[in-house]
Amino acid sequence: MSAKVPVGRRARWVMELQQYNFEIIHSPGKENKNADALSRLLTMKKGKKPTMVIIDGVDGLGKTSIVQNLIKEWEKQGLKVRFNTFKRRRKDKEEFHKPKLETEWKFRKEVVEQINSRMLEYNKDTDIVILDKSPYCEYYYQKTKSFDRGLITPHGNHEMEKEIFRLKKLIDESVVIFLEKDGNTCWENYIGRETKKSEKSSYETLKKDEYLDMVKMFEDNQDMYKDTKRYSLVRVKNDDISWKKVYKEIENWRETLIKALKDIQEEIVKLRDKNRRLGNIKIEDWNEGEVLSIKEIQEEIIKAEITIGKTGIYKEILWKKGERKLRVIRKYEFEGLMYMMHDNELSGHFGMNATYEKMRERYYWKNMRKDIEEYIRTCWNCQVRGKPSGKSELHPIKIGEPFEVIGIDIVGPLNKTGKGNKYIVVAIDYFTKWAEARALKEATANEVTKFLWEDIICRHGCPRKIISDRGTHFNNKLMEKLTERCGINHRLSTPYHPEINGLVERFNRTLCESLARLRGQDWDRNVSSVLFAYRTKKHKSSNMQPFYVTYSREAKIPLDKDENKIKDVSRNCNIKTQCRM
């Protein structure tokens, strides 16, 4: 600003800023300890709550060194760090005080109160507080589910108790890091505890297999029982006290189960008389002396395809009836389903609304939108790569039919892949919102015209108008010959006003964010996958899928072919790509 006659870009900035009334205040360099502030943690201003990094996890080799390295890194940035720690069980032979375990709720409440008490101890001048695991969590780590991790990072089936969590807002605004040697063991243990029911070795296992079968049947088929008040209290809990309490209420579990089955006897008899699928077993034979196991009885009922109320069972899958048949998702299937519909390369890590709209067309469960929002909110890649959208003034472009107006642009240079690609040429139709893209080694006029000819003109026909910027890869004689030959009106945007071609600019951002979230140096391998995900999600402006607008039918996705694939993915999906550090 000290130049007497500013020219070039500086002159344009002077013209842009002269409409504002502001004062420039010099700040000494010694106060700017973090020059790269946009990509690092910011030092909080006075009067605001400190940035809190909560580090929680299990004991492991290298934990102390990890903490020290993190503290050194933050101190280099001028941040004040304090480490709240407790005595660890492996370093102290004295056992922690065992909390009362009369009910699961009371146990959770005591854990939360411990976390709250430690959080209230931070100093106002502290920028970062490193929080160690509470003694209650340490004591029960080998005996119960991961209540501590569920409370600190709520996702999946664990939902935090908002009524007793006084500092929930502080938690939501925090950066949560799992502190372990490799960063994945904690999450892997969590998945193993929740999905592999037959391999629960880290806490006390219930001893009655028949009891587990009975309770599972009650939970899966609650709507089939008329006496709901009696059976709604039956739940599996991972402590011996709860097991004894429930078992005492149902002293003769086989007799209780028989009564529940007889409650739906009329429906079973109707189906048996209709299709004779229950011909091998008689209702009156279901007594205490019957040799048949609970599992065999359950299989016979499932084979009968019983349909009661708003849900039905067909081939061991629960469906919700209505205008469109929706598969009912169970708790242990949630993680695998979200991986396929959000984290998978064919899903592209799209936002909450897009993921919800895609899933509600095929699946259903209680509190569906809330669970999806919680999952995406805790997705590591989405939080790291995400960016809030700003609203700009709307200037609609008149269009009359599909592929009449095409927007085209170049993205890059990006990181060089193994094939040598550094750029992406993208194009999008303003009517259908159908997107095309191709990875390029060089952004030349020859490559751009080749893309237009092969991927746009020969595939979708000649557009009436093409909108692009004034880059040399678009504004050249080769491009002029192609547009003149095909009768295309090539419109160039005004310099320094990319919003003229706003649709393609917004798609560029979506494409780059999705490729970054999928990770990997060879991003060009995922371009086609991200395009598929974009074409099969509902566009916000039209509330329709680009694929459906183009082909007048919905696209088939991998889960449509085999519904049982959800179960397999729930057990075997790659933990590293689940975006949970």
TrEMBL record:
One of its GO terms (molecular function) is nucleic acid binding. PROSITE patterns: INTEGRASE (PS50994). The keyword RNA-binding does not apply. GO terms for cellular component: nucleus. Residues 254-281 form a coiled coil. Keywords: Coiled coil. Pfam families: Integrase_H2C2 (PF17921), rve (PF00665). Gene3D superfamilies: 1.10.340.70, P-loop containing nucleotide triphosphate hydrolases, Ribonuclease H-like superfamily/Ribonuclease H. This is Gag-pol fusion protein. One of its GO terms (biological process) is DNA integration. Residues 398-566 form the Integrase catalytic domain. InterPro entries: Integrase_cat-core, Integrase_H2C2, P-loop_NTPase, Retrovirus_Pol_polyprotein, RNaseH-like_sf, RNaseH_sf.
